[in-house]
Each structure stands twice: as structure tokens, then as C-alpha cells.
Design brief:
Sodium/glucose cotransporter, 72% helix, globular
Amino acid sequence: MTGTADIIITIVYVLFIVTIGLWAGTRKKNAKGDASGEYFLAGKTLRWPMIGLALFATNISCLHLVSLAQSGFDSGLLNGNFEWMAAFTLILLALFFVPFYIRSGVPTLPDFLERRYNRACRDWLAFVSIISAVIIHIAFSFLAGGIVLETLFGIDMYTSIVVIAALTGLYTIIGGLRAVVVTESVQSIVLISGAVIITIAAWTKMGGWQPMTAVLHKHGALEKLSMLRPAGDSSGMSWMAVFFGYPVLGIWYWCADQTIVQRVLGAKDENNARVGALFCGFIKILPVFIFVLPGLFAYALYLSGRLDVSSLQHAGTDGKIVTDTKGVYTLMITQLLPGGLRGVLAAALISGLMSQIAGALNSIATLASFDLYKRFRPEASEKKLVQVGRWSSVIALLASIAMLPLLNRYQSLFEGINDVIAHIAPPITCVFLLGIFWGKASAKSAQFTLWIGSLLGAAVYAANKLFPGNPLGGVPFMMMAFYLFMTCVLMQVALSYLFPVVHTQQSSALFWKSAREPLQTKGWNGIGNYKTLSAVLILVMAALYWFFR
């Protein structure tokens, strides 16, 4: 449990973030007051540092701090692949997707799909994006945050969740994207600082890298240092699963998910958008070392008898002792840090939780207003669109809280969230990739691929949960994502020949005529050039994978 000083630090930080959010969201309005462009896209004024930090903050939440530490304890560095592989998809975002998004001036990604395909594609993506934001970005984050706050402060999980939801909703719903991005930039710094503190504490307690590897070697656990596992690995995360399955999840998440890409849509110009995405790619190197590695240090400390996990253990149904590793991060805070610093770490956890929820709420408000309400009320005023967005955020908060008991059944929160994504992403990744790289991808083919692919993913997910013994039940979720994606690709290609494309003036400008075309924009001079940054990032990631292979 934490002391009075830690509680005071945490409360002061939360009030500080709420104040900053309200100030940022209300200090600058455009001539129309509550104009939707100002509220949803920050008036398209965002520069690359803020975009990169906001992308990172929206991605990294309390869920990541808790679940990546858990995965480090359970399986070592393996799940760090979700962090490092993101760098490659952010390069794809910067090189191939950003130009279309910025040049077309779309406020939402469903709007982009309508211009490239048709209205039915827009409607379906808007619906799926709202549902996924509620489940993936809000509900899972609430769950992780509630577990941590209950363990640290002894507050009932649902009470702490309701309070955080109310405070985050306050500045997000009032201030819009500007409030979200400004607070996310602050929260990124606090979150990274907190993660560095716990990493240093674990490193110091262990005595460094060599003592940790010696303990792992002694207990036959050196495979925990490997990022690339052989085919057929019992973890279900072999190198094949990582390199074939992750791009399906990653392209949807980083290139086609409104919650993430909205920060790019608010960019001042194309160069700021591209460099902001690449900046985030460099920052994504850090989580393996400051989120996953501390969990591995905790495992080595446990093996050497210097970390007490008895509070996480209970008797299983068969009478054997079971360790619930969801609480590993909290355990590290309470056992490795002195009073005062625990409050800083609690503030870092709340930072991640609030930034994730704030970003998701803003994207839900944008989707509900632009892609749903405005379709049926095209004459709606700017003020009315903002009102609808705000009410949508309130409903999303309530829905996410109601889902918590169901999602809490997952033993590993990180695997749970990626299991859900693996069944949502394939059809969306397919229609976006074929849409921008293949001019023959037709509107009808995309429409039917989204419908059938989404229903197929939902059916497979339900079958695996209701009937785990079915033939597909043993397929790792990463490979399942790849198989579903390939099914969608074959489906859309076949349907494109059955229903040939008929391009409009808009759609004919929204796919690349050649692979070299997106690289023809000059960009900034010097090291800030997007092509130079992309090459450097690829080389850095290749070197890291070689070292931790």
C-alpha cells in the first residue's frame, strides 16, 4: 500500500492534467467559436513533435505498463515485438498513407474510404471504429488502471474507474483534440519518466545485466532474452507469427484506426505529419527497455528470492498454487521504490490511462458527428456537430465501464487486447492496402470484403471462445490474423474482377500509380527529411533485431 505523500502526489497530478486540458481546449477558438474543425482536428495546426508524442501517448496506456511488465515476467522480451514492429508500420504510415490523408483533407478515415470506394464502406468502418475504440482503447485501459489503483491505494476498482472517467471526460469533451494533444504531450513525458524510474530501480536491485542473465541461465530461462522464437514455439509467437501476423494488426492500428491517425489528420502540413509519425517510430524503441525489460528483471529477482510474489498467489481449482501475474507491475512499485516515488509511478500510470481514454473519446466524437450524424442531418450546424460529439463521448464512457466484467476474464490483458484486434483488423487492413496500392480495387469488392470479412472474424472469435476444442482453436491469434487477412485479399481481388472498378474523379487520385510515386515529394532538407529518417529507422530496427534475435 502507498503512503499519504504518494496519494497527495497522485491527486495533485490528476488535477494538474485536468486544468491543463481545460486551459488548452478553451484558450483558442477560431472565428466560429465551437467550429468542428477546431474541436475535432485542432484547426490543423499540429507540428511534428506534438504529433509524435501524442501518437505515442495515445498508443501507450496504463494497460501497456501493466501488461508489458506482466509479459516480461511471463515470457521475457517476446511481446516487445508489438512495440518494435510498430516502427515499420509507422514508416508505412509516413511514406504511403499520410500523403493521401493530408492532400484529400479528410476529417476521418471513413471519409477517406468513401472517397476511394463508396458510402457503404464509410458507414461500416465508422461503426467498427467506434466499437473497437470503446473496447480496445477505453475498456481494456480502464480494466488495467482499475487493477493497479485498487492494489496501490485500496480503492474499489469501479470507484477509481468512474472518477478517472469523469475527470478525463471533462477536459476531453469540453476541449476537443487540442486539449487531448496538449495533455498527451505532457503525459508522455511523465509516463516515460515513471517507466525509467522503475527500470532503474529493478536494474539496481538486480545488480545489472550480467547478474540477471546469470540467474536466467542457472534456471534454464535464457530463451526469455530472445525476440525471435523458432517456428512452432509454444508461446504461439514464433518469428513467422510476428512477421506475417503483426503487419495485419499493425497496419490497421497505426494506419487505419481513427483513434491513432486523428493526430496525423490535425497536422499543419504533410511534412509535419510524416516526420511526426517517424518521430513516434523512434520513440517506440523505448518500451522494450522501459516497459518489458523491468518485468524480466522482476522475474530474475523472483527466481533469486529478492521479490516476494506471495501476495499474487492463490490456490487453483486443482489445489495447486497459482500466481496471478497481472499484479507484477504494482508489486514492483511497492517493493522496489521508496515512498514519494510510488506516487510518481502512480501518476505515470494514470497518465497512460487518461491519455489513452482521451484520445479514444475524441476519435469517437469525430466519427459519431462526421460519419454518422451528419449523414442523416447534412444541414447540421457546426455547433450541433460538436454537441453530438460530446454526447457520444459520454455514451462511450458508460458503455466501456459496463463491459469491464466480461473483459476481466482474460488471464493476460495484453494477449486479450491483441486477440480482439486480430479478429477485427484483417478486412480493414485489406481494403486500405489494396485501395491505395491497386487501382483495380473496386467499391463493391471493398464493401463486401468489409462485411463478410468482419462477420467471418467475429464468427471465428466466437467459436474459439465458446468451443475452444474446435479445429481453429489451436491456431495462434497472430497466425489467425494472417489467415483471415489472406482470405480477405483473395475475396477482394476476385470480387474486383466480378464487379470491375468505375473510378470517380476523387477515387482516381487516391491510389499510387507506382511504388516510387509517394517518394517523389522532396520533403525538408537535412536530417529532418522523411526519406532520410525512414532509412535511419529501418537500419536501427534491423540492428536491434539482430542483437536480440
